[in-house]
Automatic annotation (TrEMBL):
This protein's name: NCS2 family permease
Locations listed in the record: Cell membrane
Keywords assigned: Cell membrane, Membrane, Transmembrane, Transmembrane helix, Transport
Protein family per UniProt: Belongs to the nucleobase:cation symporter-2 (NCS2) (TC 2.A.40) family. Azg-like subfamily.
Matching InterPro entries: Azg-like, Azg-like_bact_archaea, NCS2
Native organism: Halobellus litoreus
GO process annotations (BP): purine nucleobase transmembrane transport
Chief location bin: membrane
Gene Ontology CC entries for this record: plasma membrane
Residues spanning the signal sequence: none
Membrane topology: Multi-pass membrane protein
One matching Pfam family: Xan_ur_permease
Regions crossing the membrane: 24-44, 70-90, 97-115, 121-140, 152-177, 183-209, 216-237, 257-282, 350-369, 375-393, 405-433, 445-468
Length: 470
């Protein structure tokens, strides 16, 4: 038996209607789409020396660039570890890495606004991960996720699709901030990044619609090549943002690894518990929403909208968070960019294994990995975001008690830039509208408990409770 056959048998590739080639291609697609995290996570986690407020990690005796280089290595190691566990234990095509939004909360809110030492913030991440491992082992996380109302489950995929598209369009310069309307159309006829992005997007959409294998990868590479060409040949200035800057690698991460241990003595118990609770809450529902949404895109959900054996990918997420915190980065979570690999045909853990292997390989070529500009890689998010909108047909739009929670889930996700907030809006509204419509038989005690938990979370998160305790 050859290596390909052994790998295929281990992951059950043929049983899942896939092939080794398809799985490898799907893994490459996912990796290319999410590899930006190698650069973006360190940039967010490291303190900006140009501001008076300390927002992120500061290590005495090390420059900002050196700290970012350390964090790039830590990001790769955390992502590779978590995704490897996802591959060999859960056998799912989902990739993991330090989550966007969670890293900003870590650096800007906890360390910056609240003034918590970054070592203590890392300690909170580690504790959160250990709690997740315990809750997953006893089945509590799976039980809570299965409590999600059906219209919310079926709406998550579409909400994530809009969220993906918004992230992608922003990176491409097509959607920009607007002081009057909050968001608006970018200068797509004069901004070089937007022009190249639009060309690359329509090329990718055309290839995808034609059914060309690897169309997303072709689109990413072609767009990056076009940006490089117009810059190298002179029509566009070198500082226009079409070519990504490379970075050097610092492999000594000892100032970060294990730093969480010293963090346990820097804050009193109640305040520390509130920080852990906030990390826990956002990560729990971000991961749950991503697993359900990407599972819907891959047709993994059962007739009740549940992801079978969801406890296994949840355990991979819990292990990744714990390891990431110990190494020196914020909460690790399942990436919505996994949808790109699923849409390319990835159906087993071989896709995730490929992503993990590519992360490990990127340790040797960090400058090359970061050479794919963000606007090019994020074309994949727009393409997949558009495709995921079709999941909206699974919702029963004839029943207003389903329309309201589903609609809120879909709308709140992109508008608040948070999967967790979208799920919160849907779950909190579900028992209320069901009770108002006289359909209390559809409401379980668990629905009310979840709704109440979201109320508590929003009080802690937006009511100034954390700030008052620190």
């Amino acid at each position: 038996m050859g290596l390909a056959e052994s790998v295929s048998d281990y992951f059950g590739v043929q049983e899942h209607g896939s092939s080794v080639r398809t799985e490898l291609l799907a893994g490459l697609t996912t990796f290319l789409t999410m590899s930006y995290i190698i650069v973006v996570n360190p940039a967010i986690m490291t303190d900006n020396p140009n501001t008076d407020l300390v927002e992120g990690i500061v290590i005495e005796g090390f420059s900002t660039g050196e700290i970012q280089s350390m964090l790039a290595i830590v990001t790769i190691l955390a992502a590779a570890t978590a995704t490897f566990v996802m591959a060999v234990y859960a056998n799912r095509p989902f990739a993991q890495a330090p989550g966007l939004g969670l890293n900003a909360f870590f650096a800007i809110t906890v360390v910056g606004v609240l003034g918590v030492p970054w070592q203590t913030a890392l300690a909170a991440v580690v504790v959160e991960g250990i709690i997740f491992i315990i809750l997953t082992a006893i089945g509590a996380r799976e039980y809570v996720i299965n409590l999600f109302p059906e219209p919310v489950k079926f709406a998550v995929g579409t909400g994530i699709g809009l969220f993906l598209a918004l992230i992608g369009l922003q990176a491409m310069g097509i959607v920009v901030a607007d002081p009057g309307t909050m968001i608006g159309l970018g200068s797509i006829a004069s901004d070089p990044v937007a022009i190249v992005s639009v060309i690359g997007l329509f090329l990718t959409l055309a290839l995808y619609a034609r059914g060309v294998p690897g169309s997303i990868i072709i689109g990413i590479v072609a767009t990056a090549a076009l940006g490089w060409a117009v810059t190298a040949l002179g029509p566009v200035a070198s500082d226009a943002g079409l070519v990504a800057s490379s970075s050097s690698a610092t492999y000594d991460i000892t100032p970060l690894a294990g730093a969480f241990v010293s963090g346990f003595g820097n804050v009193e118990a109640f305040s520390f518990a509130l920080i852990v609770f906030t990390f826990f809450f956002v990560d729990f529902f971000d991961t749950a929403g991503t697993l359900v949404g990407v599972g819907q895109a891959g047709d993994f959900l059962d007739e009740n909208g549940d992801l079978p054996d969801i406890d296994k990918p949840l355990m991979a997420d819990a292990v990744g968070t714990t390891v990431g915190g110990m190494l020196g980065t914020s909460t690790v979570t399942t990436f919505i960019e996994s949808a790109t690999g699923v849409e390319e045909g990835g159906r087993t853990g071989l896709t995730a294994f490929t992503v993990a292997a590519l992360f490990v390989g990127s340790l040797a070529i960090v400058p090359l990995v970061t050479s794919v500009p963000q606007y090019a890689s994020h074309i994949a998010l727009v393409v997949i975001g558009v495709v995921m909108i079709q999941n909206v047909v699974d919702i029963d739009w004839d029943d207003l008690t389903n329309v309201i929670p589903a609609g809120l889930t879909i709308l709140v996700m992109p508008f608040t830039y948070s999967i967790a907030y979208g799920i919160a809006a849907g779950i909190a509204s579900y028992p209320i509208v069901k009770l108002a419509a006289g359909e209390r038989e559809d409401v379980r005690i668990g629905h009310w408990v979840l709704a109440a938990a979201f109320v508590v979370y929003f009080i802690v998160r937006t009511g100034g409770v954390l700030a008052a305790q620190l």
